[in-house]
Design brief:
The protein has 126 residues and is an alpha+beta fold. Helix content is 21%, strand content 17%. Strand 1 and strand 2 form a beta hairpin. The chain is flat, with a radius of gyration of 21 Å.
């Protein structure tokens, strides 16, 4: 990316970028090779076309549920199972207007079980 032309107080200048061009002649497996969409888990607060609900006092339903699930389960549950738990927990919430929310996540080349295992067990009252 060589930046874009912009006009600043009548002068033309180029924006800066921290990107470096890829060396397309590098061998396979080289760190200079074009990046791939591997080892990614992308979580969304809601599915496309729908709203994400937020409480005025406790904030986003998704973030609140994500934090509670991670606090309760991260000592013995892998990431994808915890994200499934977040989806299931959100399913039981309802706004005062009767609105519901469903989260989702995408997996791109992430085939292992990721455990955070912080050795932290919280009291059962959460």
């Amino acid at each position: 990316d060589m930046g874009v032309q912009s006009r600043v107080e009548g002068l033309f200048c180029k924006t800066e970028t921290d990107a470096k061009p890829f060396d397309m002649t590098s061998p396979p497996g080289s760190p200079l090779k074009d990046p791939t969409w591997e080892d990614m888990v992308i979580s969304f607060a809601t599915i496309p076309g729908y709203v994400s609900w937020r409480s005025p006092t406790s904030g986003s339903w998704f973030i609140e549920t994500l934090c509670v699930v991670f606090m309760k389960q991260s000592h013995d549950t892998n990431l994808r199972d915890m994200l499934d738990s977040v989806c299931l927990e959100l399913k039981h919430r309802e706004s005062t207007q009767g609105g519901k929310q469903s989260s989702m996540y995408e997996v791109r080349g992430f085939h292992k079980k990721l455990f955070f295992y912080p050795l932290l067990k919280l009291p059962e009252r959460l």
